[in-house]
Amino acid sequence: MTFPNSLVRAARNAIETAPLTQRGDQPCHGPRPQLRRYEVSALLANGDVSQSRHIAPALPVFEDAFCAFSRGSLLETEHGPVAIEDLLPGDTVLTHDGTSQTVLWKGSVTLIPGRPDARGRTRPLTRIMADAFGLQKPQSGVIAGPAARLLATPAQLRHLSSGKPMLTPVDEFQDGINVIETLPPTPVELFHICLKRHAVINVDGLQFETYHPGLTALRMMTPALRAVYLNLFAHVHSINDFGPLAMERARDGEMDSIIA
Fold first, then answer.
1. CA 41, CA 96: separation in Å to the nearest integer?
2. Which of 16, 159, 205, 218 has the smallest C-beta neighbourhood within 10 Å, fewest atoms?
3. What fold does the segment set 35-123+183-231 form as a domain?
4. Confidence bin at 3 (pLDDT 50/70/90)
């Protein structure tokens, strides 16, 4: 599949001809981010499933929409576990509150976690050993992407949670024994999904969140960059269309997600 020149040009212009944020006191130093290819499957209003490829900046706010689950991750559905690569928009997944929701959108991206980008940034994965969080939690080893969040609160963040579990980035649980960082030097395909509402789902016996950009992640973007981002989601016309967060999230800063 080839990309229309207008789409590639729009993505390139968004990062080359304008600041990444609208705040003059937060300049972007160093090399501009590279462009990356993103794969998208989406459920359309008529029930059809569209498949498309997008060229967009290799920025965390974009990559996080695609980088939660590795190939082979098993999501709990009404018909039993289904591998993330086999799940399609229109399928339903079971959520933390016992209901089922339809998958509206699935994104994937292939990257090399251990290869630094133009700004020296890597995208580490997190390997979670079997039973790391209790019996069959997870049921077998899990490799989670850098954007994955677990419904749990590590000891170092409990003072922020008021005793309630939070959706916490998986790297906060790394202990070098049961939960470890890994930087493969070869390409890895990663995935994420959107439901109608932000939710917590069962993946390999652990409770992970579905995709939501956060309430403020796009607020400081330039209009050009925001347009490229929203073009990734057929079911979304503005940030408000993602709806509210299902529960509190740890380490949910807006600026880091845009320019880190």
1. 24
2. 159
3. Endonuclease - Pi-scei; Chain A, domain 1 (2.170.16)
4. low
